[in-house]
Specification:
Elements (H helix, E strand, L loop, with lengths): L15 H9 L4 E7 L4 H16 L7 E5 L19 E6 L2 E7 L6 H11 L5
Parallel strand pairs: 1-2
Antiparallel strand pairs: 1-3, 3-4
Helix pairs in contact: 1-3
Length: about 120
């Protein structure tokens, strides 16, 4: 999906807490991302999220992308109760510890970093 290409204009220096949170979970956390290029929210939100993952040095094998159709059906959508896109689920040892859905009013990376820090998932 084109919307998973990191935004080259995203400024990591303006999001140091977000980067720090993602770096703290590197090697332990798995990011599952559902979206589609036909989705305006995905096109506007996911490139910044992927720029944050890139800036934090998250390995590709820790990121799983699932493309959905216009009925929001796709791989693992039922298992993860995905009804909105983009949706990002963060897991540790197959346990969901944070979730971002399109309805949130803050950027995905910042939202998930705050959720991770608030849940003590990075302790």
């Amino acid at each position: 999906m084109e919307s998973t290409v990191p935004n080259p204009d995203w400024d990591a220096s303006e999001h140091s807490e977000t980067i720090d949170a993602f770096e703290s979970g590197a090697g332990e956390l798995v990011y599952r991302v559902w979206g589609a290029d036909w989705c305006g929210d995905c096109r506007s939100r996911l490139p910044d999220f992927f720029a944050a993952l890139d800036a934090a040095g998250i390995e590709e094998d820790r990121i799983h992308v699932y493309e959905v159709d216009d009925d929001k059906n796709g791989e693992l959508t039922e298992e993860y109760d995905v009804t909105l896109i983009p949706t990002v689920v963060v897991e540790r040892a197959d346990e969901e510890i944070a979730r971002f859905e399109e309805k949130e009013d803050v950027p995905a990376a910042d939202y998930l970093a705050r959720e991770l820090l608030a849940s003590d998932a990075l302790a």
